[in-house]
Amino acid sequence: MLKNDVKEIFNLINNSDKICIAGHKAPDGDCIGSVMALYNFLKPLNKNITVLMDGNIPYNYKAFIDEKIISNSYNNEEYDLLIVLDTSDRKRLGKFENVLNNSKKTVVIDHHKTNEGFGNINIIDTEMSSTGELVYDILKAADADISLEVAALIYLAILTDTGKFSYRNTTSNTHRKAAELIDIGVNVSEIDNIVYNSKPSNIVRAFMECVSGVELYYDNKLGITAITKNILNKHNADMADIDGVVEYIREIKEVEVSCVLKENDEGTKVSLRSKNNIDVAAVSVKYKGGGHAKAAGFDINENIESTKKIIIEEFKKYFA
Fold it and tell me: Most-buried pick from 136, 241, 300, 301 (CB within 10 A)?
């Protein structure tokens, strides 16, 4: 990260009135935490701020966000500055992709290795555990005052994208920054309880049904299950609420790659996780997706069964 880039970002912020902050579709903890941290940091500056995230907010993140500030539609409004967070490519903005064409300047802040940079200023650091960690570094580089509210949101982003500090992307620097956030006053146990210990019973039942449907291939090295519309309707659940299934499957001792197929109106969203040396981002890129070596995904215009056959065939070269 270049200090000149950070300086230019803050110059753009200071000289802009209409600012849009956008995150990726189907927002997760890192996206929500990063977007809301930046929103809360900019709010005292009396800017005209718009927040765009395409998709429902999962139940366990609602406590961290005022959903009234999130725009549900976009009518080609123009902005002086657009800041895109945790979004690996322009398509990941979903229905808000066109905002890129109506902003005078665009800043992209991200940590996905498949991000090739689609902004005027791109701060992309694939060594970071999360976009939240990168946002923290940017604020620190600018000698900005970080409030407790902003610190809590950054901690949320880091916590969730490191799998509670358990993934390989967690470094000693990540822990040091988390400690600094705690020193600001972040209530670690409160955030952990909200995110991980607050599942409603209907969500638990939907989760269990998805897990019980897991199918194992190639001597149990590949695990696949599906979250279908039928499961969601049966348990009155939203797709955004059924989180952690793909990670749960990865916990099976023999499984090296886990896959969850999420049925939607356009086809299927594929979520992939790996345990050892298989780069699931490389597979995802073939289908215009992206992500990290150990966590990636893509959308495909196929039904669940057809997509499952594609996944089984894709990983044949790794396991067969």
Answer: 136
Cα–Cα distance, 258 to 272 (Å, whole number): 6
**Identity (one letter) of the amino acid at 194?**
I
Domain limits, the chain: 3-195, 201-319
The span from the CA of 223 to the CA of 319, in Å, is 12
pLDDT for the residue numbered 1: 60
pLDDT in tens, 90-136: 999 999 999 999 999 999 999 998 998 999 999 999 999 999 999 99
In DSSP terms, 49 is beta-bridged to 19
Task: Identify the three-state secondary structure at position 16.
Answer: coil
First to last CA, the chain: 42
CATH assignment, 201-319: 3.10.310.30
Task: Tell me how far apart the alpha carbons of residues 319 and 219 are, in angstroms, rounded to a whole number.
Answer: 8
- Residue 68 and residue 316: Cα distance in Å, rounded? 46
Amino acid at 221: K
The Cβ-side half-sphere exposure at 252, using a 13 Å CA radius, reads: 23
